[in-house]
């Protein structure tokens, strides 16, 4: 099946006169993934979907997903992306996915005075950072929405004790004209990463959920004035998407990469999703075998592989077509003209394409200025975020 798919894609690229490396999104696979997510979101009806911008960094792609999933909630990890989203989505609700240095937030407001009332939830992980943001709010006479990062077991920072949490809530309660609690964010990617021999995913998930619930109770019991039905309790991510849609203490669910399903997101819980993202790289040279510099004796040995030099290379991606296509172990990697071995019997010519599957979408998207949406033998060009 994949053999036929890549042969057709190779032919369609050449028919369109494309002769440079391309990042391709397969429309059929993308639409199937969207339908799967639509079904799951309906089942977990209390969960509002939030699109992770870094993993889907193209306005065209985000606009399609926003419409299909009926959301303008976005998780943003990079300062320049804030303005891009606000300019393109009139009802954008932004949640920062990592704590920004206070100077970054100050720079944003200094350069974007028209966005002082935009719906931005700044992620705060410590009391010290909260006090820095308080000074920004005072200097610009604005009210900042504050979402507190809590550690639910990943141990990548964030609040780790109820005492620390209460101290931060006290500051927010003390300065209501400048700080507004908008919710909590607890990222739980560890749930599916811990080896099962140490802890089963179901157990790790339930433990992370209990931690999350405990922090919610602190707000309810100790700071009832800060509690309201509009609080954003964000969690999840592609690895734990299926856990949350089954049962969750959260009401806001982030995901992104799973829609394109790069290889790092191959897991039992995401087996229903299809790979939708490929790199196509033109073949520049075809040699009968790889000749290693200063090692002429090896040239006389029998060779089972042909050598290709391709346009580009060394991406965070795995070669998937032709079959048994792989970098040469001794020749070394190259991002300019990578040497790739293929079977001696492989029928591949100069100007054909080899295909790779990215391991991550967030690492690959900024390396290409365009995405090519592949649909019914044709290609639609989408722009990506290059910053």
Automatic annotation (TrEMBL):
Ranges for domain Alanine racemase N-terminal: 25-259
Top enzyme category: isomerase
One example GO MF annotation: alanine racemase activity
InterPro entries: Ala_racemase_N (IPR001608), D-amino_acid_metab_enzyme (IPR051466), PLP-binding_barrel (IPR029066)
Membrane-spanning parts: none
UniProt-listed Enzyme Commission number(s): 5.1.1.1
GO biological process: D-serine catabolic process
Keyword annotations from UniProtKB, A to Z: Isomerase
Protein name in UniProt: Alanine racemase
Species classification: Bacteria, Pseudomonadati, Pseudomonadota, Gammaproteobacteria, Moraxellales
